[in-house]
Amino acid sequence: DVIGRYIVSIKSSFPTHLSLSGMRIVLDCANGAAYKVAPTILEELDADVIVVNDKPNGYNINDGCGALHPKTLGKLVTQYRADIGIALDGDADRLVVVDEEGDVVDGDKLIGALAVYLKQSGKLKGGCVSTIMSNQALEDYLTSNDIDLLRSDVGDKHVLEIMSKENYNFGGEQSGHIIFSDVAKTGDGLASALQVLALIIKSGKKASVALNAFELYPQILTNINVTKKIPIDEIEGLDKILGNSRASGMRDLIRYSGTENKLRVLLEGKDKNLVESTMNELVGFFQSKL
Length: 290
Prior knowledge:
Elements: H1 2-11, E1 24-28, H2 37-44, E2 48-52, H3 71-79, E3 84-88, E4 95-98, H4 107-120, E5 128-131, H5 136-144, E6 149-152, H6 156-166, E7 170-172, E8 178-180, H7 189-203, H8 207-210, E9 219-225, H9 238-247, E10 251-256, E11 262-268, H10 272-289
Parallel strand pairs: 1-2, 1-3, 5-6
Antiparallel strand pairs: 3-4, 7-8, 9-11, 10-11
Helix pairs in contact: 1-2, 4-5
């Protein structure tokens, strides 16, 4: 009876005074683990559900569908004039949302909207945890709503570690791994989807408005081929360049790939032109040194 017990558990996380009646949802199950339970849960909550990629055959999991390929879902949302599109991945721990206009909602915007929703509902314990990859605009938005953001290394297990250590009950990655620890101890795409749907209903706004509370800062990620991996803090002259960029309000993340001879450089800031020119300077610098 594990399927029945799981359905009851996840449904209980949805506010009892709300209903999905009148909401049309396109659901992409990625031919994966949630192909049976996801449609059942949404239908039992009275949603009008259009289900795609719910026929796994052992080979088609994540094959051009689901959270890894949400553009097709966007087209279906506009085609069916749906209110929202929900895409899960094969093991159903990731969630990608498409608004009623067919646009994919950025993961950082999703985290920000959910954190504020939880706080307004009196359900947020502590603050929010995200990774070092999350856009600075997310942190600034949460700060403006008196919510602390702690950053972890990349990977939902690292997010969960800090949540457990600090006794926070919410965190996630921009990739769609979102953790509501009061509902599930790991990322659960369905649990996250129900919270998103509750947020939209309570806001009384369309998904494109309710999940778009702030604008992301320009962000550039560049991979640079290298022939040697000198420890980053030992590269002569780097401190000066980064000192100037940080003084201009930019955030940087520089690390070597663990599997390839590449240096990954992330740079973001409010001024797009300044970010681009600084990235060009960094690329030239690293190419000369490495």
